[in-house]
Amino acid sequence: MAFALAQYIYCAMVDSQDKISRMKKASVHPRTRLEKQYDRLRQQLARTGYISRGSVLARSVTTSGRSGYQWTRKVGGKTVSVSLSPEQFQAMKRAVSNERMLHKTIARMEKLSRRILFQTTADTQRRKPLNKKVLGTI
């Protein structure tokens, strides 16, 4: 398509086959290794139990002058501590551990998602290929 405006001539290619053929074709693999890893992480999330932010601490008389169990977290920029029974301590310990594992799992899922999306969808033409640092997969 060409048109003239005053003394200049402009040319524009619209939906040309050349541009489409240069785009990276989407791969049609039934289930890649990355998708299987992603599914395993998703199943791991489904098995996650109760979660809670903060940390739990078993205090002894020798280190703090008091004994007992404590759960500490930040609320509105302030530290809040709660005394716990031995049963609550064990439950909160598992919940805090689950919360930390949850964040690690989600971070791994995010990296895998980006790798899968950039490998399986059409890409634009680039002078240099995207590296792992740019994609945030390292």
Distance between the termini: 44 Å
- State the domain count: 1
Give the neighbour order of strands across the main sheet: 3-4-5
- Give the helix tally: 5
Binned strand content:
15-25%
Secondary structural class: alpha+beta
Query: How large, in whole angstroms, is the Cα Rg?
Result: 27 Å
What's the mean pLDDT score? Answer: 80
Q: Low-confidence parts lasting 5 or more residues at pLDDT below 50?
A: none
- Largest sheet geometry: 3 strands, antiparallel
SSE string, helices as H and strands as E: EEHHEHEEHH
DSSP strand count: 5
Shape: elongated
Helical content band: 40-55%
Describe the overall structure:
The protein is α+β, with helices and mostly antiparallel strands and 138 residues long. It is built from five helices and five strands. The strands form two sheets. It has a three-stranded antiparallel beta sheet with strand order 3-4-5. The chain has a two-stranded antiparallel sheet with strand order 1-2. Helix 2 (33-46) packs antiparallel against helix 4. The protein is elongated.
List the helices and strands and how they pair.
Blueprint: E1 2-5, E2 8-11, H1 17-22, H2 33-46, E3 55-59, H3 61-64, E4 68-75, E5 78-84, H4 86-120, H5 132-135
Antiparallel strand pairs: 1-2, 3-4, 4-5
Helix pairs in contact: 2-4
Descriptors:
three-stranded antiparallel beta sheet, alpha+beta, 138 residues, two-stranded antiparallel ribbon, 5 helices, 46% helix
Short description:
With 138 residues, the protein is of the alpha+beta class. Helices cover 46% and strands 20% of the residues. It has one domain (2-51, 87-135).
